[in-house]
Amino acid sequence: MLQEDERIMRIGVLTGGGDCPGLNAVIRAVVRKGVATYGHEFVGFRDGWKGPLEGLSRPLGIADVRGILPRGGTILGSSRTNPFKIENGVERIKDNLAEQGVDALIAIGGEDTLGVATKLYELGVHVVGVPKTIDNDLGATDYTFGFDTAVNIAMEAIDRLHTTAESHHRTLVVEVMGRHAGWIALHAGLAGGANVILLPERQFDVDQVAGYVEKRFQHQYAPIVVVAEGAQPLDGQMVLANQELDSFGHVRLGGIGQWLAEQLEAKTGKEARTVVLGHIQRGGTPTAFDRVLATRLGLQAIDAVNEGDWGKMVAMQSTDIVRVPLAEATRELKTVPLERYAEAEVFFGS
Ligand code: F6P
């Protein structure tokens, strides 16, 4: 029911960074509750921080969010724009928000987008953050939405690859995303019954991996090796797809799977092939888990805005949706603890 005693706000919503399944579910929840319960108005900013920076917006009402719950991607568009790397970026954002009569912002993003939100909050912008990323590497939240969908996509791919590996007596190396965190590799590898899982959190010994692979062939099975794009060999280097840095200073990872397959083929004498799952992991419809998580985070975000609880990120802790300071959530990446990795090692080579 509409609470008419509250002040009506005009709220901007943006999605930044890599797209991920569940973004539309957040937007829908925010707008549906914001309009129906609080009577607030919304404006959608296009393409992440580029929207408020350049004043690029679109209407965002109930009609605009109908039917978007199961859709991947984001109806608002996304980009990796960093306003702190653009001359007068912060002033331009503040001016555009004032010009469009926007009282508050809901920023939906990962470490980069929410890092910007943290700094803007410290500079006086009314902002609340919502954590998204398939990488699941944001601090202060147990899960980010998008992760479960990515893991399920990767698991299904691994399930399918088992049969080709067995039929052709090949090693199949599956390279998954996750940047500098191994969550996708760990969960997809465990769920898919991988023979070896390699994460950025621990450098691997390629001879040991070759040993696991050979053992698997001795048991008359073919091995699946899941490697995170950020994994690196002992005394080796991270393999980069591209040397260029984006505006947040990130390199583009990719290529470790191919490198590893060549090494394994040379060391074991068995054919080894690579499958790079890439953006398939970010596409398509979100799982039920991600739809529910994204919806609950969106509902909490609009409550925080309604209460003027600025500088917070909504988060999942245990099964609760809570609010934590943005600064706490963006302080450091949440990587896989080595004891979690050790759980998976029981299955290596067997
Ligand atoms: O952060 C999500 C992510 O998909 C990472 O796993 C990956 O390293 C990166 O984004 C790829 O970004 P882009 O689509 O910009 O190449």
TrEMBL record:
It is found in: Cytoplasm. The keyword Metal-binding applies. It comes from the Bacteria. The record marks 132 as: Important for catalytic activity. Keywords: Cytoplasm, Glycolysis, Kinase, Magnesium, Metal-binding, Transferase. Its cofactor is Mg(2+). Its main location: cytoplasm. Non-allosteric. The active site is at 135 (proton acceptor). One of its GO terms (molecular function) is 6-phosphofructokinase activity. Pfam families: PFK. Residues 10-305 form the Phosphofructokinase domain. It catalyses: beta-D-fructose 6-phosphate + diphosphate = beta-D-fructose 1,6-bisphosphate + phosphate + H(+). Substrate binds at residues 133-135, 170, 177-179, 229, 273, 279-282. Mg(2+) binds at residue 111. It is an enzyme of class 2 (transferase). The record marks 112 as: Important for catalytic activity and substrate specificity. Diphosphate binds at residue 18. Its EC number is 2.7.1.90. Homodimer or homotetramer. Catalyzes the phosphorylation of D-fructose 6-phosphate, the first committing step of glycolysis. Uses inorganic phosphate (PPi) as phosphoryl donor instead of ATP like common ATP-dependent phosphofructokinases (ATP-PFKs), which renders the reaction reversible, and can thus function both in glycolysis and gluconeogenesis. Consistently, PPi-PFK can replace the enzymes of both the forward (ATP-PFK) and reverse (fructose-bisphosphatase (FBPase)) reactions. This is Pyrophosphate--fructose 6-phosphate 1-phosphotransferase. It comes from Micromonospora luteifusca.
